[in-house]
Amino acid sequence: MMDSPTDLFDDTSPQIHAFAPNLSSAELPGVHTQPSTGRPPPSFRPPGFPLIHHLLQPGGEHRRISGQLNTNPSTHRHLEDRNLEDDRGERDGEVEEQGMDRGEEEVIEREDKVLGIKKRHSDATLGAEWSQDLLKMKRMKLENRQRDGEADGGADRGCRRREGGREGRRREREELKEQLEEARERLQALQEKVWRAFGEKHMAEEEKNRRCRNANSGTADGREGDVGMMEEEDITEGMYDEEDIDGGKMEKDSFPPLSASPLDHFHKQRGERQREREGRMERGRGGGLHLEGVMEGAGLWLDCGGLIRSDWDGGLEDDGEEEGQKFAQALKMELGSAVARVIDRVLRIYTETTDFTPSSLPTAISFLPSDVENDGRREKGVWMGLLTRERGEEKMRGKEEKLAGQDGEREKQLQKMSNGNTLPPGQPHHTEPSDLTMPLALQRSPDIRKAHPLLGPPLSTHLNPSHPNISLHHPSLPRPPPLSHPPLLPPASQTKDPTSSFQLSSSSSSSSSSSFPAPPPPPPPPPLPLPLLHYSMQQLFSRSLHHPQLPHLPPSRKDYLNSDPFLEFSHPSAHPSFPPLPLLGHLDPSLARHGGRERDRGMRGDGGMRGGGGLDGGELYLTPGGVYTQEGLSPCHLKKAKLMFFYTRYPSSNTLKTYFPDVKFNRCVTSQMIKWFSNFREFFYIQMERFARQAVREALTREGAPRLGRENQLRVGRDTELYRILNMHYNKSNIYQVPERFIEVSEVALREFYSAIWTGRDSDPCWKKGIYKIICKLDSPVPDAFRLPGCPVG
DNA sequence: CAGATCCCTG
DNA sequence: CAGGGATCTG
Fold first, then answer.
1. Is the confidence at residue A726, as pLDDT, over 70?
2. Is the dihedral of CA A319, A325, A328, A334 positive or negative?
């Protein structure tokens, strides 16, 4: 399915993403102190959790459900849209500009891909319908639970209503039966919708599924296989199939999909079953009677089936209230599990087809063990996730250009200011590319490309057009450090006030730069770093859960998808519909409260919102968008913020709100997070200054080999000490691949510092201001992956 | 003057 | 990293 070419969003531009969670020692020669190189690769196999298993959880259910039930799906959606709009509107002008650009692009796209859009729209409608149906289902389930509760209560008062007991039970049964039927109808409707939506896929896989089922129907112990298979299975078929598969003893037609009611079955076989009841109860209870068991693993479906049947059988022989209870219980379970299954399935399919299949995304995704090194030697634990580049190169660029909006301005200014800024008069420009810039951008990309031709052009060359500001022609980059100048002869023009030079340059015309053509520079596509897999699943989960009707980004943001690392997480073994425990804990307060601590120990490394206090921050709140927020910031939020620093050094508070949807922002929290970034910057600049000074020192001492010194000191390749330090600070676990863009920005900063120090500008009390100003303009958009709640890495 | 940053300190 | 004063900006 990953490679199925024809699909909804085949128009999206492909994007190359390197999935290299761990950098090898080869790449990081300086990292020897860190034992990380021996770290096993991150687990790509998340716990198999049904998406909505929490719906079956007695604790956290009501709050959540009521919160959603009481909300009209459509208004709900509107609210979310509004939020998004507002969000965008609130962001500063640059971003707003960006948004407009995106809108423009959307228009163009519409013209270009009417078909695709149509599909998308129908998808949206379907999504809405589904969400409504899901809500109804949930409601029914809830009602059922209440009814059940009443029934239980009734049993307690059994003696009082003894006269009407039998009649009451019968009526109760009837009602339950009706409800079940109703539920089935809804399920069927749902199924049909799914069928309609994924008809082609279904057709294609029907055969396969049939075979699969047949093959599986013989195996009683099909848990593992089931889960694995279900991933591939078409939901329309698999919706009820698990029951068939379950237990060899079960007749295949015991629960014919959507046809005979289990109740009929119940009545029919009531007598004969009594005999086998005991053994079955053993099996049933052992197999999956306990809800926890059901929830805990991938065996939900199977377990539910076993549970119901065994319970049922067990209840048959009990006369009186107990039987009624059992029956009600069984019904309840059936309903609950059915609803859960359907929702889970729908969500899974939905997320699959929307977020993970090539249909919605740039073509094929492949994860290969990276033997990306020149010699092709294999690096353990390093994986490359590649989104093969289709034809979208051009389009991508176009998008980037439009996206640039925000950075365009910055770029322009940068161009201006860097032109002749600190560049010493007479300093030949030509030395830059070879001496300084080249080592920067070309560090690794060529190697990667060698191993993976699909990656397309070298990163540097690809990025260049879109990152004028940091490309080979970047104004600040090209500026060669005045190394070649005698230390004692700093160019007079730049000796003093750094701001003056800055202003000077910024006042010059933007077209003054020969390396910068008039058209505004294209936007920087988010680099190619990759969050961990489990994060992607969190994202998927939250997307599908919170935006069932809009599983992806709003159309206007679709462009981001292409460069969203979020897309990089398609691994065969990692199914989107299995959210990691952490997220579930995050979403379910009760879970978090109870199990959070214990699991913390055993499951650490799973990441998520736990990490020593994911939920310690404070109370959870359910936002109108359906996202749980918490007061206070957790260590995971800090981690995320640090990773975000790779993209944005100067986030606005609105940006923060956008990218921390699970945080309830108040004045305190906002300022705390601002403070975080302030601290990040501080650290960053301190390191830059430190290394710049060191470079200056070295340049002074080894006068004879300035070039060497320059090479070694003024670049922030992944093999440098400076990089190691930065990586250690912002990406301690070294799980997230530092975006190339950040490295480039770091180099810009380093050179700025170097230049300033070299020219003696650092004597000015506010000599750093100019540098800050430059760096602040190099912020790039944060990948959409960060927009979702949760923690990117463990 | 408020808010954002910077800068220093613990 | 947080606190808190100083400084800048609009």
1. yes
2. negative
Residues in Cβ contact with A134 at an 8 Å cutoff, skipping those fewer than 6 apart: A342, A343, A346, A548
Q: Do the beta carbons of residue A526 and residue A780 sit within 8 Å? A: yes
Residues A529, A737 contacting (CB under 8 angstroms) = yes
Count the Cβ atoms, other than its own, within 10 Å of residue A298.
Answer: 19
- Alpha helix segments (H runs only) across A1-113: 58-69, 73-90, 93-112
pLDDT in tens, A321-351: 444 555 556 555 555 555 455 455 544 544 4
pLDDT digits (tens, 9 = 90+) for A9-57: 232 222 223 222 332 222 222 223 233 332 333 322 233 223 323 333 3
Q: How far in angstroms lies nucleotide C8's C1' from the CA of residue A739?
A: 32
- The per-residue b/e assignment along A71-97, b for 16 or more CB within 10 angstroms, e otherwise, is eebeebbebbeeebeebbeebeebbeb
Signed CA dihedral, A660, A665, A667, A672: sign only: negative
Q: Regarding beta strands A365-369 and A383-387, do their DSSP bridges make them parallel or antiparallel, or are they unpaired?
A: antiparallel
Closest-lying nucleotide for A652 based on CA to C1': B4
CA angle A563, A722, A747 (to 5 degrees): 55
A433 CA – C4 C1', rounded, Å: 45
C-alpha closest to that of A182 among A364, A335, A347: A335
Rounded to 5°, angle at Cα A543 from A538 and A544: 105
Closest residue to B3 measured CA to C1′: A671
Every domain of chain A and the residues it spans: 405-527+684-784
When comparing pLDDT for A566 and A193, which is higher? A193
Q: DSSP 3-state helix, strand, coil percentages of chain A (rounded to 5)?
A: 65, 5, 35
Select from A703, A704, A700, A689 the least CA-distant residue to A757.
A689
- A25 residue type, one letter: S
| Å: A676 CA to C2 C1' | 9
CB A401 within 8 A of CB A520: yes
Residue given tokens 């003893």 in the structure block: A249
The rounded distance, in Å, linking the Cα atoms of A648 and A663 is: 19
